[in-house]
Design a protein that fits this description.
By secondary structure, the chain is α/β, with parallel strands linked by helices. The chain is built from eleven helices and eleven strands.
Length: 299
């Protein structure tokens, strides 16, 4: 059995779990990551010390432990989002906040650019919007072709179009937005290549994508921030939609990326324990600055 086949089989088995069981398994995974002082715990604690310098050590430790447990739950929920029937997945959404923003955004026929950070359950967020709109989402292909085919199939089972983050893919997103369609992006990843600027994120200047502002400038689309909050005791999720900060489409890259990062910060601060703090978001700083994950090296 190939590596991809084994992984797909494993996801299929995990996808048979009910939500409560999957979340319990995820919390156990997070607890293990915390207890054995893994690299995920180390990175999480470094990130939280940067983002929340006024917190006490006990507060940061508590949030780090909670964050690892939530990340474990996200990992165990993904097979459900990929393997469950769509109707069952959407049935997990118990409430929606900010739905009026969608109606207002679509009134004038403009395209809609949805920005979904790694907060809560972003797979459910994408599934919800693809159930309502003709939608395209930007993605980074995995190294294994067979697994990429599987990922495209499960994410696109409602007709959502997955677009690679290359020049052809970006042209496709712009065309769809100009037609008044909906596209989605995970906006809090550290970008590669030249399409970036250094902008503050939780008080530290980090490399930030300029893709969002370029798409908005070229399409005239409306941006909205969104996430799915995990409710307690396996009760499901609350889908939240928020306005973005002014300046996010500015032609000045620094103004635009600063507004983008501030928009992400705003929603992260609402449920900080459900953000993926295990990601090394602060590793690409202004050249010459210290790498917080490797203090003996500069960026």
């Amino acid at each position: 059995m190939s590596k991809a086949s084994f992984l797909i089989t494993l996801l299929g088995l995990a996808g048979k779990l009910p939500l409560r069981a999957a979340q319990l398994a995820g919390r156990l995974l997070g607890t293990v990551a915390w207890t054995f002082k893994t690299d995920s715990r180390r990175v999480t604690e470094i990130n939280l010390s940067i983002a929340f310098p006024d917190y006490t050590d006990d507060q940061r430790h508590s949030m780090a432990r909670s964050s690892l447990r939530h990340t474990g739950q996200t990992m165990m929920e993904i097979p459900l989002m990929w393997e469950w029937p769509v109707e069952r997945c959407l049935g997990l959404i118990q409430e929606i906040e900010g739905e009026e923003l969608l109606a207002n955004a679509k009134k004038d026929g403009r395209g809609l650019l949805l920005l979904a950070p790694h907060l809560g359950n972003w797979e459910l967020t994408g599934l919800y919007f693809s159930s309502r709109y003709r939608m395209a989402a930007l993605y980074s292909p995995p190294n294994i072709k067979e697994f990429e085919d599987y990922m495209i199939r499960v994410r696109g089972r409602l007709g959502s179009e997955l677009v690679r983050g290359d020049r052809r893919g970006l042209a496709r997103l712009i065309a769809l937005l100009r037609e008044g369609q909906v596209t989605g992006i995970l906006p809090d990843q550290s970008p590669r290549g030249k399409g970036n600027a250094y902008a503050p994120f939780f008080g530290m200047d980090v490399r930030t994508m300029t893709l969002v502002s370029k798409l908005l400038q070229k399409s005239g689309a409306k941006p909205l921030m969104t996430y799915s909050e995990r409710l307690k005791d396996g009760r499901g999720f609350r889908l939240v939609i928020r306005e973005c900060e002014n300046g996010i489409s500015d032609s000045d890259p620094l103004i635009a990326t600063t507004a983008l990062n501030r928009s992400i910060e705003n929603v992260v601060r609402e449920i900080p324990e459900q953000y993926q703090w295990e990601y090394k978001r602060f590793r690409h700083r202004v050249p010459g600055e210290i790498n917080p994950y490797k203090p003996d090296r500069v960026c």
